[in-house]
Write a structure and sequence with these properties.
This protein has 113 residues and is mainly β. The chain is built from no helices and ten strands. The strands form two sheets. A six-stranded mixed beta sheet has the order 2-10-9-4-5-6, with no helix packed on it. Strands 1-3-8-7 form a four-stranded antiparallel beta sheet, with no helix packed on it.
Length: 113
């Protein structure tokens, strides 16, 4: 199993970023997928989840209305569109195959002026 995140970077408050996660080594369309983030202060937090078919999503309260999770089962990809970013969103973001210990290496998102 391999999960590879990309798309992180430095962005100003109010800006947007789109994270991507490429999955391999398992039947992607059979699994729910999640995005987490980690900071020294908060530890690792669940940000969003998308079901295996993509027909249902859920979000942490602190990103509702700003972030959108999506997936493309034909490409084995899961995405996190992040809009109206805040400094508090600064974190390392991880892709995880739900209900497993399969994590990506993480991608740093820094929101700062």
């Amino acid at each position: 199993v391999k999960l590879v995140e990309s798309g992180g970077g430095l962005v100003q408050p109010g800006g947007s970023l789109r994270l991507s996660c490429l999955a391999s080594g398992f039947t992607f369309s059979n699994y729910h997928m999640t995005w987490y983030r980690q900071t020294p202060e908060e530890g690792r937090e669940l940000v969003a989840l998308i079901t295996s078919s993509g027909d249902s999503v859920s979000y942490a309260e602190f990103v509702k209305g700003r972030f959108t999770i999506s997936r493309d089962n034909a490409k084995n990809m899961v995405y996190l569109q992040m809009n109206r970013l805040k400094p508090a969103d600064t974190a390392v973001y991880y892709c995880r195959r739900a209900a497993t210990q399969d994590w990506g290496q993480g991608t740093q998102v820094t929101v700062s002026s």
